[in-house]
Amino acid sequence: MKGKEFYQILKERQAAGATDLTAATILEGAEAGEKFLLEGEEKVRVFADSYTEPQVFMERLGRSPKLLVFGAGHVSMPIIRIGKMLQFSVTVLEDRPKFADQARRAGADRVICEPFSQGLEQVELEPDTYAVIVTRGHRYDEDCLYGVLSREKESGTACAYVGMMGSRRRTAMVRERMRELGIAEEEIRRLHAPIGLAIGAETPEEIAVSIFAQIIQVKNEAERTEGYSEELLDAILEGYGSGEKTGRAVLATIISRQGSAPRSVGTKMLIREDGTTLGTIGGGCAESAVMQKAFQMMRIPESPRFLVTVVDMTAREAEEEGMVCGGRIQVMLEVTGS
Q1: pLDDT digits (tens, 9 = 90+) for 129-147
Q2: 73: helix, coil or strand?
Q3: Measured over all CA atoms, what is the biggest interatomic distance in the chain, rounded to whole angstroms?
Q4: How far apart are CA 247 and CA 109, in angstroms?
Q5: Fewest C-beta atoms under 10 Å: which of 57, 201, 242, 291?
Q6: Residue 28's CB: how many other CB atoms inside 10 A?
Q7: Which domains are seen in the chain, by residue range?
Q8: In terms of Cα–Cα distance, which of 283, 281, 285 is closest to 320?
């Protein structure tokens, strides 16, 4: 597949809830730039066996992470802000209008101001959902936890992360209560409680950092890239829909890295012909060099629509540019749009 067809099918499959997707792009030869979307481990293995590295970039896709926060008290505010900073889609459940307004001001994408049980019914729990239970009281925490675990059991779909705030003694009591309510032991063991990494956090901001340290640890243990967000796919497909050259853009994807390059394999950035961008591959002179190549691809008629480039940042060059890391990244550039 090339171009619009690939992105349309990918959007449809992700919207349908597909979670075991792999995108493959041929990097060399006459078919360079051809893309395939595979579903399931068996198909991935068969395809991988038919090519040898570095001819094909195989990318197991993860969807954009979703943060589900129960409660909008003082600890929740930095959780919301950090979640947005880390590009999570943030939903907050809070039954008090005044506190729900605080969550909106903190930048939450969606705030449901209803009793927790009713609010939870309006939210999809998916494999890319990170649930953080930090309500105003133990009774509410327990009700929210049971709601999440029982919904997981009913749907057969587990969240990526479920964490609940509380002391060791209190969380031990909650675990016992979950057993009494019929929650399986394997599900109870998945609970992160007390929530967060043990870094001696005291203030709401420090607690939020400890929680996200744990969430990032869990998220990055999954061998998947950040994938194609809904926003990114919409932006790419909008370019195809315009029917004009101004709809063109270049999608830059990091396909390998060495050293201490700032962003991971699979990180994507959309560079539009008008100079606007969506996402980042790390900033600094490395990103600037990639953008210049992208503009050449869009503006010079004889330029290829697909290429792989290497940006090599030595420690000295990185230091001169004010960056804290160097390294070497290999970036795949693809012209998208009309």
Answers
A1: 999 999 998 889 999 999 9
A2: coil
A3: 69
A4: 28
A5: 242
A6: 11
A7: 4-60+225-336 (no CATH), 66-221 (3.40.50.720)
A8: 285
